[in-house]
């Protein structure tokens, strides 16, 4: 097996030759310079990375253990930000312009593609409080991307053009020096469990009960059918949280979830989410409807009984049905062959089990990830039904801003297909502080105390991992 130094030397030796294959002069004439031209060079990595290091500066990571997939991005080759109700339309315009001007070379025939990160906060409303960490909505092409699946891996080096071979050799050479040796460092194991102190909860349990009662009154009055309420919990640890270890612990505890890290301006937004907003591959779509939750039990018979009770629960099935119906309605105008299973399946995680309906559909020609995100987000799994009434009710009723919690993030391919995950089971982590978020769907028949316990179970996902980070 090649040593990290040899991997770096091999990549650097191939850099100049790879750069020669890129068209570096701008092909655009006068008047066509408003949007960004990009070049990307893909280089095979002779070894799959064992770790994704936390380097200084902006970076993102997506790792899914069961799917054996990882994607990471470091630094910035290009980015676009947007906010307000048209945020996705603005980013779509940039993405569509980029699609026609993104030149890629894959001299090693890795078969991988270049990629960008697309993500956005729960609400399109601009917020200075959140802006200092992540902008409201962001399309971000990293300077150096890492991509691995099924035992193969590649680096994707990207830069704006026009450029020169000398400039790229210097810039990408430095980026490889900073990243490659640390891709093969041994993964740090978990530490002894640290004590976490609960510092601040919004709402507290009695405020939560009032909020649930108010939601039930709105449902009784027929102005809402479902609304998803959430809470924020701030904790401090007895030591600084180590983001690498935290991501490792989450991947270990939740191997069927997408573990995400979005790091900018000194803090990390971290999630281990079971819910995919959508995956588009060509014209094939997969969308998850996840809603309806029960606890787990260490005793197998008791655990099975909890799962069976969940699948038979009228309240949970109604909560779930709103999500399926809204997804169908959102996809109908631009998709055909929309198929949902007759009955929801059970998705079992280490802290909770959910009702889950994987929905499949076929997108019409020309429909891309931006269109689909705009139509689907937010589903009643995180917002409510009807959509606009539930958003308006939450804006008035919820005592804090959700920020990126219940927003979405994922990766976009140059053909504008890709994958987005709903940002659940998440925390914003900075030093020894973490802000955690969790919510629960309220429908007629919901009980405030049971819903509180459900949010506690959801918070446990991140709390248990933070202890070992
Ligand atoms: C809003 C959250 O979960 C959603 C996703 C799955 C199950 C849910 C539920 O049963 O209420 C929620 O709709 C959260 O985890 O914060």
UniProtKB/TrEMBL annotation:
Task: Pinpoint the Chorismate-utilising enzyme C-terminal domain residues.
Answer: 205-458
Annotated keywords = Isomerase
Q: What name does this protein carry?
A: isochorismate synthase
Family, per the entry? Answer: Belongs to the isochorismate synthase family.
Coiled coil ranges? none
Please tell me whether the keyword Lipid biosynthesis is annotated for this protein: no
Organism classification: Bacteria, Pseudomonadati, Pseudomonadota, Gammaproteobacteria, Chromatiales
The UniProt record lists the EC number as 5.4.4.2
Q: Report the catalytic activity.
A: chorismate = isochorismate
Give yes or no: UniProt keyword Isomerase: yes
One GO molecular function term of this record is: isochorismate synthase activity
UniProt superkingdom: Bacteria
């Amino acid at each position: 097996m090649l040593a990290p130094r040899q991997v770096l030397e091999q990549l650097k030796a191939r850099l100049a030759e790879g750069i020669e294959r890129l068209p570096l002069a701008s092909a655009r004439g006068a008047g066509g310079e408003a949007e960004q031209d990009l070049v990307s060079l893909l280089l095979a990595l002779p070894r799959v990375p064992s770790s994704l290091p936390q380097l200084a500066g902006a970076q993102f990571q997506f790792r899914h253990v069961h799917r054996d997939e990882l994607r990471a991005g470091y630094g910035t080759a290009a980015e676009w930000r947007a906010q307000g109700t048209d945020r996705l339309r603005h980013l779509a315009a940039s993405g569509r312009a980029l699609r026609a001007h993104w030149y890629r070379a894959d001299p090693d025939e890795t078969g991988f593609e270049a990629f960008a990160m697309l993500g956005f906060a729960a609400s399109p409303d601009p917020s200075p409080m959140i802006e200092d960490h992540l902008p409201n909505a962001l399309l971000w092409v990293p300077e150096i991307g890492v991509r691995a699946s099924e035992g193969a891996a590649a680096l994707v080096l990207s830069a704006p053009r026009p450029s020169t071979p000398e400039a790229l050799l210097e810039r990408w050479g430095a980026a490889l020096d900073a990243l490659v040796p640390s891709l093969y460092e041994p993964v740090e194991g978990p530490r002894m469990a640290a004590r976490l102190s609960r510092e601040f909860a919004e709402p507290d349990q009695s405020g939560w009960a009032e909020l649930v009662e108010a939601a039930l009154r709105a449902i009784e009055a027929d102005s809402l059918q479902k609304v998803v309420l959430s809470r924020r919990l701030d904790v401090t640890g007895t030591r600084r949280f180590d983001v690498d270890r935290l991501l490792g612990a989450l991947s270990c505890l939740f191997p069927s979830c997408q573990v995400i890290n979005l790091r900018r301006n000194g803090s990390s937004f971290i999630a281990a989410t079971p819910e995919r907003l959508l995956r588009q591959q060509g014209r094939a779509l997969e969308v998850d409807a996840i809603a309806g939750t029960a606890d787990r039990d260490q005793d197998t018979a008791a655990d099975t009984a909890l799962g069976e009770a969940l699948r038979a629960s009228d309240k949970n099935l109604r909560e779930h049905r709103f999500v399926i119906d809204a997804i169908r309605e959102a996809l109908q105008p631009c998709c055909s062959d929309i198929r949902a299973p007759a009955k929801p399946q059970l998705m079992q995680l280490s802290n909770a089990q959910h009702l889950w309906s994987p929905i499949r559909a076929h997108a019409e020609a020309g429909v891309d990830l931006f269109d689909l995100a705009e139509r689907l987000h937010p589903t009643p799994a995180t917002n409510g039904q009807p959509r606009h009434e539930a958003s308006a009710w939450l804006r008035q009723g919820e005592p804090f801003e959700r920020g990126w919690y219940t927003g979405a993030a994922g990766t976009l391919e140059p053909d504008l297909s890709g994958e987005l995950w709903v940002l659940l089971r998440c925390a914003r982590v900075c030093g020894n502080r973490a802000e955690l978020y969790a919510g629960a769907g309220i429908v007629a028949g919901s009980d405030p105390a049971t819903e509180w316990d459900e949010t506690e179970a959801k918070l446990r996902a991140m709390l248990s991992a933070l202890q070992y980070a």
